[in-house]
Amino acid sequence: MGRPDSVQNLARLFCERQQFTGEVLHLEQAQVHYLKRVLRLSVGNLFVALDGQGGCWKAILESNRAHLLEKLDSFVEAPFSIALACGIPKGERMDWLVQKAVELGMHDLYPLVTARTVVSDPSPHKVQRWGVIAREAAEQSERSWLPKVHSVQSWANFMDPVSTSLGQDRLKVICLARGERSSLGSILKAHEPKPVLLVTGPEGGFTPEEIAQAKDKGFIAAHLGPRILRAETAPLVALSLLIGAYETN
């Protein structure tokens, strides 16, 4: 397999897995337009094609398809799955949160409407926009895995599958304001690297009832330090602590 330093300056394009057939990548018309008109690539130019599930290839552009030249190793993904569930912050702050969370290695994002969430019913357009931001951030940060932005859920609907499919075999942590006895850093040091589900709250934090529900589902409560963090800052601090504790060089 090729090394990533041989493709550092090449454009990157996420495609659906079904577009790959043997050594051929079948491009959609919008992707051809993006490569040729936006990125200014010509037939015969190289780029990196990704299937969004960890696979990446050096590819050469043809007319309406590409030929896969070699499979590439990826050294940028965390060795464990990272899911983040967060109360949706108000305004355009969620756009920034999505972008930075992807850069930090998040795999799945679950936007939540909790008791204190100001944005109670985001439009489908906003959710679609978050997906586009995630894709662009993944390409820019040279991710080989395309993070998924899930549909907006209420707190109750999110908690239903936590003890089964969503939270199964994961370290589950709910991040709260200062005052909690355990810091996230100390909790991570006490556990071996494994898939993680981080939950952070909206402006105003979680209600006592929500915290109790999370603890009943097996979440460990943790604080992120002595300072009060904004709703869009707390998830990024939590992700940074997680990567710093578990990711190896």
Question: Could you describe the 3D structure shown?
Answer:
By secondary structure, the protein is an alpha/beta fold. It folds into two domains: 4-72, Hypothetical PUA domain-like, domain 1 (Ribosomal Protein L25, Chain P, Beta Barrel); 82-246, Alpha/beta knot. It contains eight helices and 13 strands. Strands 7, 8, 9, 10, 11, 12 and 13 form a seven-stranded parallel sheet that branches. A six-stranded mixed sheet has the order 1-4-5-6-3-2. The longest helix has 17 residues, at 124-140. The chain is elongated and about 60 Å long. The two termini are 20 Å apart.
% residues in beta strands: 15-25%
> How many structural domains can be distinguished in the coordinates?
2
Would you identify the regions where 5 or more consecutive residues have pLDDT less than 50? none
CATH architecture of the largest domain: 3-Layer(aba) Sandwich
What share of the residues lie within helices? 25-40%
> What is the count of β-strands?
13
Alpha carbon gyration radius: 20 Å
Order of helices and strands, N to C?
Answer: EEEHEEEEHEHEEHHEHEHEH
Category from helices, strands and their pairing:
alpha/beta
Largest sheet: 7 strands, parallel
Per CATH, the class of the largest domain reads Alpha Beta
Classified in CATH, the superfamily of the largest domain is SPOUT methyltransferase, trefoil knot domain
Short description, anyone?
The chain has helices at residues 29-38, 93-103, 124-140, 155-159, 162-166, 184-189, 208-216, 234-246, and strands at 12-14, 20-21, 24-26, 46-50, 56-61, 65-72, 82-87, 108-113, 148-149, 153-154, 171-176, 196-200, 220-223. The protein has 249 residues and is of the alpha/beta class.
